[in-house]
Write a structure and sequence with these properties.
Blueprint: H1 8-22, H2 27-111, H3 114-128, H4 141-154
Length: 155
């Protein structure tokens, strides 16, 4: 039997030295105070062990709560990602529809003869020009002669 690395022979030697140094009359009192101190030490270590166990339980409960929160957040993120993915797919479909419409309109415009396309372009340019920049209309030669005859008659 080893207690703290001290065998039975070493323990007997220590007791003999204690009797010689302390004396036989004070030895029971010393043993009693040593026992009391040992009991207090055990109680203190028991309290520390209980406090440690309580802290460990609290820590584990907190860890479980955090794990549950993480699971919940992970699920929310997945749901949001699924929603976003659906919206992206809808947007892609809409873009494809728009691209198809534009392609159809381009094909229709390409079917118009070049002369007509030029006329349409001129009409668009006229419509977009401001009124002050609009070119004055040219008079036809008949209108010039008619206007000069009216002026001659007025004289």
């Amino acid at each position: 039997m080893n207690f703290l690395g001290i065998g039975p022979m070493e323990l007997i030697v220590i007791l003999i030295i204690a009797v010689v140094v302390v004396g036989p009359e004070r030895l029971p009192e010393l043993a009693r105070s040593l026992g009391d101190n040992l009991r207090k030490f055990r109680e203190a270590t028991k309290d520390i062990s209980q406090a440690y166990a309580a802290m460990q339980r609290e820590f584990l409960q907190d860890a479980d709560e955090i794990q549950e929160e993480l699971r919940s957040l992970r699920q929310e993120v997945r749901q949001e990602a699924d929603l976003l993915q659906g919206e992206v797919k809808d947007f892609q479909r809409e873009l494809k529809r728009e691209a198809t419409q534009v392609e159809q309109e381009v094909r229709e415009v390409q079917r118009i003869p070049a002369q007509t396309a030029g006329e349409i372009q001129q009409e668009m340019e006229k419509a977009t020009q401001p009124a002050s920049r609009a070119k004055p209309k040219r008079k036809r030669p008949e209108e010039d002669t008619l206007a000069s005859e009216v002026v001659d008659l007025a004289d």
